[in-house]
Design goal:
The structure is a homohexamer. Chain A is of the alpha+beta class. Chain A contains 11 helices and 7 strands. In chain A, the strands form 2 sheets. In chain A, strands 1-2-3-5-4 form a 5-stranded mixed barrel. In chain A, strands 6-7 form a two-stranded antiparallel ribbon. In chain A, strand 4 and strand 5 form a beta hairpin. Chains in contact: A-B, A-C, A-E, A-F, B-C, B-D, B-F, C-D, C-E, D-E, D-F, E-F. At the A-F interface, helix 5, helix 10 and helix 11 of A face helix 6, helix 11 and helix 12 of F.
Chain lengths: 315, 315, 315, 315, 315, 315
């Protein structure tokens, strides 16, 4: 039997077996009995899958959060591609490795290699002239690097995969450095703001193989969490200037651009206006691009995007 | 010459001399030359005043933030009472004390004595059953008591006078304790939330004899500042339960009730709904009452209240 | 065969027979033929049910609005518990009484006994000092007591069960009396406002065993209806002071707190601010509590609440 | 000395004496002493006036709400025409009649004669086919005719002069009758709705020579007042169909078109959509026309209109 | 076998064959295999249909956008009437004509005959007094008449059928002529504005047998397209007055009434206020009427209308 | 007598004479007689001025829109610096040239030289790869270059001076080119969009020495005007691809970012999102910088900015 292609390359005529990450698993009961509703992921994306047969047996063979081996075929349901599964079981690492299973192929991941992105981040830190700010960034990266390197930027909206936060931060860095030059704004502050604006997401989101909100993530939120992480780190640095810290916290707190979007304060410095604009643009472009990629609507426009509240031109 | 009554009792026919706090002082130039535009305060309220004569001399005789002795008379300008001053100079404490000057008479102040309010606050702390929360409150009061006892609750909107924050906190305490009982909510958390919800104002506002916003007050805001003050204090307490702290911070962060009003997170617990509702009601009633008190519009309704966007029925 | 537990205690493994109220009944046709889509209620809550077999026969055996005896088993569908029915027929009162059928067990009802709540309402009326207002309340309760005692507070949003309106009114009464004391507001007016603010719901909603909107309920609305009911009653009382009546009507008309929420006038008195705040808080807490009770989402947070537009922390 | 022209014809070079209604009178104190700030009206419009000399004497010579004889000259202040007065005193009816004083010339009034408008209103009533609705209208006009004939439609926004409400109602009548025919809507209901939609303004506004809000006007509002007036009148008619009454009240209650504009219910019938649209259009066109008339801005556009939030093209 | 009635007259007991237009066709796969999800239309309306048998064969027998002959029966699904099909194939024009097939019976169409509406449009053009405007209208109708005569006014919201745009334009014409007289507005401009306000829809929408948005329709929009079409036509007319053209473009650009609804400029002339009001009212009444027609909810009110955000009273 | 410094360098102690542009002139009448209210501008900014003496003579000596020679002194009024004038007359070019008068010194102007900016614009055009788009830009610059080189970007909000539009366009160009690279967007389209997005302002605004709105500027708006200018130019180019034109018009039409801000369509392409973000950021930063420059508020924060609705941190 054939091997299934990566999720991004599946079609309604695909048939065969493959390795994936099971992101969600649910037993549902319809009129003709129980069936399994599953979400599968790999490095290229995610897809819904269903199993209608041998449900009682299959459901014991794997859990959400595990890597699985499945056998199935593509199917169009309500104009959306899905997989109908004949078999599914958890991966047996040693044995399945022989058939080509590799964890890293099954985890949704940023398009650029993590190490390459991490190295690029380092060059930005090195470009900071203020010794206090550079020291702060180095401390933060030393403390939080393991997570920052792999964290997703969100549970669902944009950059919602391994390395997504880092990918997002690097784009923001490019943008704010452009505008720092264009408007003579404080480049050091903007580099720090770009790197740290979403740092609270390391605690807002729990991330292993799947992503969800932590208790403090919901009740406190990454904006306040991140502001506190930065303050704690700055205080541990001898002589960190108070006014620099206040401005940096202001960048983090105001980066959603307005109160109604969850920033407790509006941007009040040129740097804060720049960071909020660049962040918003990157998040939107990511949503636009992802919507175009996953859209199956015939014709030059996508289906309506609920969050952006418009159709997108695909050209 | 007669002594002027307290500001709240002045009328267009008042004439004489008195002691006040000069809250603002400005030299303005009109067609017929320079004049002094002044704001005077005492324990009973505040009033605008102008001096048209001897401006060059008078303007050297006092500064904003000083206690002053003035001589003048009441005057109606655009239906608002003001004072027209003939003389004004800074208070000479020793000499003027003989004429009855007392600092405490000249500072706008909450209607209840500060000590009485402070004692009442203590009974609320004592009513807390959770040792961790009670300890946290005792620590906070020990650290910040000097300021909390005298701080205003705002620069202008409501409770904008000495002891105003404490007065506001005590009203909130009554309210949340009522609802804690009514809805079986966590009383300890609500007592702590009521006492600490505006604690960040101790750093958001600079207050001596006049009130204005600090740099971190504007750029960070009392909600984030207060949340951090509480976290720091809780961490200093051995074994302070993390979930209690998160819920308490949530109370502080969400107490404006919605994001558009500056809370980075919406209320998500019964306690947070209660605190936000009681806080909002107290602020509104204070504005309504103050508007009625200072309104001179004839008839049963006040003039339009800009912030509340309505007229108020005076009965 | 076993007896099914109360709806609130049903689980996916429940199996047996029981007595319920059929709140809705619909014949739907799917690919494999017609089936019955039903909503069942009892004193503890409500649940969806489906019957797939003998539909043509079963559908004649009962109607929406009737008490039914059913036989069935629990089933999870899209993570929600439902009942799959094998049998359903209308109750035969005499015969089924022998098996334990009691009407009062099958009707969703407030947690507190109606008589106890009614008695408590009387104590509030008795506390009114103004003879005119007390007389007005006595007249209203004499006229509308039968309905006020059993009416739901809404069709769906909050307190949507027998006695729900009275339960809601009593909570409001506690709250407004607290604030009447706290702010020196007119207690008599607030007691009357609390009891009468939703009195128009007695005509806005039709209530027998199920609840729906009357024609005047939709076209006129309970706010205007209630205001008129109170005016008519006050006019029938000799010498009822006009200004009291106007203020009382103002309480009813403004109790939604702002125009966009359906109040034709904004609150313009301290009493109106209080009533609107207490009413809003009670409605929200009821929604929060009900959402927590009926939520099956794993983890410390509920699913997203559409009306409140947030998740709720379950602790 | 020359007679001043009507207010609408005054210019910066006008000088002389004339009779007007004093709508507002205030003593203000500036740097150079007290002056009188006055608003004068006549049949053609209104204008601000000031008196700087002999203030102490002049201020005793007349009151707001009285007809006055003035002597003065035109003056441009901040690009707005005003009058500077040398003399002002209350009218002596007998003596001044000899000089041409007539009350009706001094009261701002609709452009069409009241009697002519009243007669036209009668033809609309006569066109109603439903005997119940015609009877209701006849009763309402019998009861409220004296006021309806002269009432203004507002204190300030639009049709704010004698007969303004009637003028407004007649325009609405034309409009709704057009659409009743165009859309096959209930003409009788629409005629009644047009005549009665603002009937509550007879109690919302106090009107003698000047206009202001009554207590029930502010606390209850003309929408609720009018709905009650109609209900009372309908109940006094034997056999008035309940469904007709509910629909008619719905027209009154929903005629502001949406809740945020003060209607407690949204339009839910074709007739309600029509009435709300026609009413809104008439109010807007009246504001546009009045703004163009009173605007002195050079060029083809008016100054910014605050309520309409735009400039208007004058052509 | 019986002939099915027109779509508007179908019921759950209908059974037989008929001719329709297939507006949409989709193959969906459920648990029990693939089925066809179809939308059928005729002159009287549209209905959903499904085919569960012989899907592989049937799906080759017709396409969306073709006329079809079907055999099937009525069925209620979720309280909505649908058709379950046994057979479906594309029409064979010659052969099926013998059985009564006529294209014009199968296309959703305005209730009034197109030729009658077209003739009426001509009388409005003839009533224009300005030779320039009349010439412009004649040119536009000469150029675009073929499309204007048959175009729908929208893809879905209102007047979404053959001749719908013309039907809408004629209603608007009646309305604006009424108000042109009532308010002494420029009748010629309003006639032109009414005829041309949606003329851009001839390019915004692609219409053959089905309707969808063109690329420029989405990216540029009918307001800008229409404004350009009118400008191009006016420029081709010798001596067309510039100010007339600007006002006419303003009518087109502002006819949605406010920026948030897609008009780049707010109405700034009496004519623009009138056109926007009449257009909005016609669109709303059409939605109300259509909602009432297609609603199956028991009782005097329709189901909730999502776009209008309310229920409608059916009487 | 001394020469006054440039407006940006004036202080309350400045005294002397100088050359300026009179931007506005008005005769106002106060209590003590008429005075002149004037706005003066030079290359460095603008300032209010008043003349209280010899008004009847002085007012004939110059007009708004003329260059003037004045003699006066600095004065603080309501904390704002103004000039009090002793003399003012229109410039006599020949004679005053001897005293140093140069037109270019008296006109508010962008900080960078116009020729330098114009040359830079050319390098952007030259960087366009698409021959059609480059040709379009060359044609547009050939036709509109004279105006584009000197036009202000607005009457008041931002870049409201000679060369302001060009300065704004160049900043936008830098920004969009950065993001074109960063996101792999269509650089040619973005360069064209940046250069042409506000091209309609050449007709929306009348600009000589002062700036105001043209008739079509108000009634049609620069977005629609600009879109039409581009379309006309593109049509004059043989073989200009229709889809390029539609996308380019889309960039112009959507560049305000949302409908409520006056864009008739929302951004639907990556390029449109980029242009709208960069344009908005540049406008905001310009307002922030200008507000900081002109602000005289003591302390680290500016006064409240009405349009941005916040205070700004000045550092």
């Amino acid at each position: 039997m054939a091997t299934l292609p990566r999720i991004a390359d599946l079609s309604a005529t695909s048939i065969g077996w493959g390795f994936y990450l099971c992101a969600r698993k649910e037993v549902r009961t319809g009129k003709t009995g129980a069936y399994l509703a599953i979400v599968l992921q790999d490095i290229s994306g995610e897809i819904k899958a269903k199993a209608f047969q041998d449900v009682d047996v299959l459901k014991e063979e794997f859990d959400a959060g595990e890597f699985v081996k499945i056998q199935g075929r593509g199917n169009l349901f309500n104009q959306k591609l899905e997989l109908v599964l004949d078999k599914i079981r958890r991966v047996m690492p040693d044995r399945d490795a022989l058939d080509g299973f590799r964890e890293e192929d099954c985890i949704p991941c940023a398009p650029r290699p993590l190490d390459e992105m991490w190295a690029e981040l380092g060059t930005h830190v090195a470009a900071v002239e203020s010794p206090h700010i550079r020291r702060l960034l180095e401390d933060m990266l030393a403390t939080y690097g393991d997570r920052l390197k792999i964290w997703p930027a969100a549970q669902a909206v944009h950059h919602a995969y391994r390395g997504g936060l880092l990918e997002h931060v690097l784009k923001i860095l490019e943008g704010v450095r452009h505008f720092a030059d264009a408007y003579g704004a404080n480049r050091d502050l903007l580099i720090a703001g770009a790197i740290l604006h979403d740092i609270g997401k390391l605690r807002e989101l729990n991330y292993g193989v799947t992503t969800d909100y932590s208790v403090e993530g919901n009740l406190i939120g990454h904006i306040t969490i991140g502001s506190a992480m930065v303050r704690d780190a700055a205080r541990a640095i001898d002589g960190f200037p108070e006014d620099l810290l206040v401005q940096l916290e202001h960048l983090i707190l105001s980066h959603h651009g307005e109160k109604a979007l969850g920033s407790p304060v509006d941007p009040m410095t040129v740097e804060a206006f720049i960071l909020a604009a660049v962040d918003d643009l990157d998040a939107k472009i990511h949503q636009v691009r992802k919507h175009i990629e996953t859209d199956d609507t015939p014709g030059p426009f996508t289906a309506f995007h609920r969050r952006l509240e418009r159709v997108i031109y695909k050209k």
